[in-house]
Design a protein that fits this description.
This protein has 15 helices and 13 strands. By secondary structure, it is an alpha/beta fold. The protein starts with about 25 loop residues before the first strand and ends in a 5-residue tail after the last helix.
Length: about 475
């Protein structure tokens, strides 16, 4: 049994506990089910039982003889699959859970979903707190909403890695931040860690709430009691609706960001001495806010929280620098007139630009400078969709992009954009690339968020 580990909120479609049979979207070439199962079949039962999720299929399909009940169009079929015990079924499903997503019942003071403006894709308003999506996609969960049966299931399956929002290890403060019952999540967290499961933690840091001494206590408790695989600190995200939806929560500034970084560095030193690893990490936004250089790649210890914005910039820079070195090594040894070379490169790239958010501007300028690339127009878009302090490029809406193109009127008609702006070809506000092109006359070209991918699109040498 396999599943494409692709994190996409489009997969979070069913809310509640109504069961729907999973659709098989791929039968792997090596699958023992190839003779009996077709793409598009619905799986009704495995060995006479209805699966709740992919985990059930993995467990029940592990035997040497597996009985499947399928629906193909209007027909219901039965199939016996004989295989080597332990060999996976080799089926890929359209989503990992079939009985509905476990939704969040917390009342977090800073909830980003509560702050989102109306009119976005419906899936964006789903507040999941599902341990299965944490396992499959790396979604952060709170553990507050898990019943004892679900906790036992996690322990029996030894399900890890899991990603947990801890926010504070002070039970009283955690309940103030997240609502009644939040102390239960700390007890569950201790159970998972005591069982030896791999757990990665995050703290959404709110100035005046869980920073300063409160954050110090959290770090100290994680180092000595809740010894997780990693802990990432991220700044609270506030949209233009924060005053109404998150009253009493304020954004970080250069001073508070610097204080967080100093505490992270202090406890990294303690963790290195005790554990031989840094354990604590700060998100990229803190370094940008504080105007600090990013740590070297080795300090991120394998980048365990990239999806959480921890180390993305450093990884991007390292990919870009490695690409530049490859290009430099492939150049002819004979010296070239640098002025003529720069002029030729600028002419070659005339009409090509990069569209980015406010936070990405500084990183891209550094990359282009290090790579010696001139003549590339940098178009910076502000975020009116979310407003507030939201500056990351991936949260720009199609409307933001369209407004920027109309107001700034960049000379470049072709613009590179990060692929993370799109989900299944559409922006957060459901506009498509074709919508923007037809209304503005500009052509947008999504590329992977990698330093080498960007430079290859601009330079095209030695990929």
């Amino acid at each position: 049994m396999s599943l494409k580990r692709k994190r996409s909120e489009e997969k979070i479609r069913r809310i509640g506990w109504g069961w729907s049979p999973p659709r098989i979207v791929e039968v792997r070439e090596e699958s023992p089910c190839r003779e009996a199962v077709r793409e598009g079949d619905l799986l009704l039962e495995v060995n006479g039982r209805r699966p709740r999720d992919v985990l059930d299929i993995m467990r029940w399909g592990d035997a040497s003889a597996v009985r499947l009940r399928l629906q193909r169009g209007d027909r219901v079929l039965k199939a016996w699959v004989r295989k080597q015990e332990g060999l996976p079924l080799g089926l890929v499903f359209d989503e990992p859970v079939f009985d509905g997503v476990i939704t969040c019942r917390n009342r977090c003071l800073f909830c980003f979903v509560d702050q989102m403006p109306p009119g976005l894709r419906p899936s964006l308003y789903v507040k999941d707190d599902d341990y299965r999506l944490s396992f499959w996609y790396g979604n952060f969960i709170t553990l507050n909403n898990l019943g004892s049966a679900e906790v036992k299931r996690i322990l029996s399956l030894r399900l890890s890695p899991l990603y947990v929002s801890v926010h504070s290890t002070d039970p009283e403060l955690r309940s103030r931040l997240m609502g009644r019952g939040a102390e239960r999540g700390l007890r569950v967290l201790r159970m998972l860690l005591d069982a030896g499961l791999e757990v990665h933690l995050q703290v959404v840091c709110c100035p005046g709430w869980n920073d300063g001494r409160a954050l110090r206590r959290t770090f100290d408790d994680v180092l000595r009691i809740y010894r997780a695989a990693s802990l990432g600190v991220v700044p609270v995200g506030l949209t233009r609706l924060a005053g109404e939806k998150a009253p009493g929560i304020r954004p970080h500034d250069a001073g508070t960001a610097s204080s967080v970084l100093e505490l992270v560095e202090e406890f990294q030193g303690e963790a290195l001495g005790m554990l031989g690893r840094r354990l604590f990490h700060a998100s990229d936004e803190f370094y940008l806010l504080a105007g600090r250089d990013f740590p070297p790649a080795e300090d991120y210890e394998g980048f365990p929280q990239l999806e959480n914005g921890v180390g993305l910039v450093r990884k991007f820079l390292e990919e870009a620098f490695a690409y530049v070195r490859r290009c430099d090594s492939s150049r002819p040894s004979a010296p070239l007139d640098s002025k003529l070379e720069r002029k030729a490169a600028a002419e070659e790239k005339k009409g090509l630009g990069i569209l980015t958010g406010e936070a990405g501007r500084h990183v891209l300028r550094k990359v282009l400078s290090e790579a010696g690339i001139e003549g590339v127009e940098l178009v910076v878009s502000q975020n009116d969709l979310f407003g507030g302090t939201v500056t990351v490029t991936s949260l720009l809406g199609g409307g933001d992009v369209m407004r920027t193109l109309r107001d700034a009127a960049p000379s470049s008609r072709d613009l590179l954009i990060p692929g993370t702006l799109l989900r299944e070809g559409r922006f957060l506000d459901d506009l498509s690339l074709e919508d923007i092109s037809s209304r503005t006359g500009y052509r947008l070209h999504p590329i992977p968020v990698r330093g080498d991918s960007l430079l290859h699109a601009l330079k095209g040498c030695g990929a």
